[in-house]
Amino acid sequence: MERAFLSESSSRSSSNNTRLHDHSGSSVRLRANSRADIHVLEQLKVQRRNMTQVCKMCVKSLVDKSPFETITDDCPHLNNLCNVLEHIFLHRMQARWSIFSTTDPVHYWHIIQQYASSVTVGSIDDMENVSTELGKCRAWLRLSLVQKRLATFMDILVSKQHELKVAYMQGALMISAELQEVAGVLKCLDAIDFNLCLRDQDFDYYDKLEIDYSPYLVFHQNTSSRRDDRQEERRLLSTSSSIDSRGIDEEREEEKEEEEEVTSLKELLKVEREQKNYYEELVSVRDTQINQLQRELDSLGRESEKEKKEMSGIIIELQDQISKLQDSIRQQQKAGRRTNDNRRSGLFSSIFKSGDED
C-alpha cells in the first residue's frame, strides 16, 4: 500500500497556487512550454494524486470497519473522508463574488443545487441548524452517505466535465481524470449503513478543514530490517565490557518482539477470517434473497401465463356468444321482414277484393 504519498512538495504546492492567479482573482492559463508553469502543473498533479490516494484509504478503512461496528458521527475515518471530499470539491474552485460581500468562503452548494436530487436539496434547506452554504454542503455530504447517493452524484459530475470547467480553474481535480477514479472508489460506500444524526450537528464552523494523514503514514519495519539494526548496534557496542550481558538482553528482547509480532499476525489473521466469514455469510444471505426473488418471479410468471390462458378462453367464449347473438339478430331481422311482407301482401289482397266487389 502506498503510505508515503505526502511529500514536502505537496505542502509547498499550495504556495505555488498563487502563481496561477492574477491580482483580480481570475485564472491564468498555464503554458506547457514554460518551465515555471510545468513545475506548477506537476505540483497540481501531486495534489490530485494525494487527495485521490487518501480518499481510497479512507474508504478502505470504513469498509474494513463497517462489518464490526456501526459507522456513526464520531467515527474518525468518516470525518476524515468528509474532509477529503470537501478538499476535492473545493480544489481550485473559482471564487463566487457577491455584490454584498467579497469575503464569503468558497463553497460548492450551487453545484449540488444544479445536479443533486431536488428532494435532498430541499431537505437540507429545511434544516434549521444550517445557515451557510458551506454548512449545507457538509450536511448534504453526510445525508448522501446515509441515502447511498454520493457515488451516483459523482458519476453525474463525471459526465458533466465540460460544464464544470466554468466553475473550476485549470488543474482542478473535479475536471481531471482522477475524478472518475474517485467516483469508482465511492461506490464501495453503498454497502455501508451509516447511522448519522444531522439535526444536532453544527456545520457552520470555520471554513478550513484539515485532512488527518497520520493514520495512513505509519512506517512498518519488517523483522529482517529490525534484526539488521540490532546486529549493527551489537557491532558498535562490541568495545564495551558489558557486551555479553547486553547481547543476551538484546536477544531476549528480539525474541520477545518476534513473539509479539507472531501474536499480532495471529490477531490479524483472526480478524481477516472473521471478515471473510462475514462476507461469506453476507453472500449467502444475498444468494438466499436472490433465490427467493427468483422463485417469486417464476411464480408470478406462471400465474401470468395461467391468467393469459384464462383470458384467452374468456375471449373465445365471448366471441362465440357475440357470433350467436349476431346470428339470432339476423334471424329475427329476416323473420320480421317476412312478417312485414306477409302483412303487405294481405293488405293488397283485401284492397283488390274490395275493388272487385264494387
TrEMBL record:
Biased composition (Acidic residues): 250-262
Keywords tagged on the record: Coiled coil
Stored SUPFAM superfamilies: RUN domain-like
Positions of the RUN domain: 72-201
Source organism, top-level taxon: Eukaryota
Alphabetized PROSITE patterns for the sequence: RUN
InterPro entries: Run_dom, Run_dom_sf, RUNDC3A_B
One of the Pfam families matching this protein, by short name: RUN
Region listing for Disordered, in residue ranges: 1-28, 229-264, 327-358
Record-stated family: Belongs to the RUNDC3 family.
Protein name: RUN domain-containing protein
UniProt organism field: Amphimedon queenslandica (Sponge)
